[in-house]
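HUMAN: Ready with one sample?

ASSISTANT:
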Amino acid sequence: QMQLVESGGGLVQAGGSLRLSCAASGRSFSSYAMGWFRQAPGKEREFVATISWSSGNTYYADSVKGRFTISRDNAKNTVYLQLNSLKPEDTAVYYCAAGHLYIATMNYEYNYWGQGTQVTVST
């Protein structure tokens, strides 16, 4: 089992920034691809970003490309998501996930999920 705990969400004005963190425990973190997904009210969960277990590759949804940055620190068993130039449409619950693959973009590829952290962007 792997436990994932997100933090760093909150209320921010449009154009602002937040840094989300996801702390992992219980399994070999460095052998898992890590991803961030989000779910807005009334919408399906959607892919945001992923990073390979070696940090050699990252991939982003078009809607966040150039504004969000995913990174990881394998020594700290933590993955981060830096959110810049936030827009009201970024409002959602953000989830981190771990998949026992090199890199993954689909929900079903992930084995473990956190409980989520709320990000609210006001106008």
Q: What stands out?
A: The two ends are 40 Å apart (CA to CA).
